[in-house]
Design brief:
Elements: E1 3-13, H1 19-29, E2 33-38, E3 44-51, H2 52-62, E4 70-79, E5 88-90
Parallel strand pairs: 2-5
Antiparallel strand pairs: 1-3, 1-4, 2-3
């Protein structure tokens, strides 16, 4: 089982619609570590780390998001795995 770490920026109507909360719940459901936060430009930034397949599922979910959101695009980049530990958090 290989580990993977991804940094993502999510664009669209993703603030004020519980995007961070549902992202955190989905990441925890998939057993991922990392964090999510709102950025001043109305985007959402997140880092996910865990089993390769779980990270892939999380990325797929980001393109849809929770029902009240409207994701227009997602930019992501691979990072070196093995940095995070200790669960998934919402940053403020």
């Amino acid at each position: 089982m290989s580990r993977r770490r991804v940094h993502a920026i999510v664009y669209g109507r993703v603030q004020g619609v519980f995007f961070r909360k549902y992202t955190s719940l989905k990441a925890q459901e998939l057993g991922l570590e990392g964090w999510v936060r709102n950025l001043p430009d109305q985007t959402v930034e997140a880092v996910f780390e865990g089993e390769d397949g779980a990270v892939a599922k999380m990325l797929e979910w980001l393109y849809v998001g929770p029902s009240n959101s409207k994701v227009t695009s997602v930019d992501f980049s691979e990072q070196e795995a093995g940095i995070d530990s200790g669960g998934f958090s919402v940053r403020y």
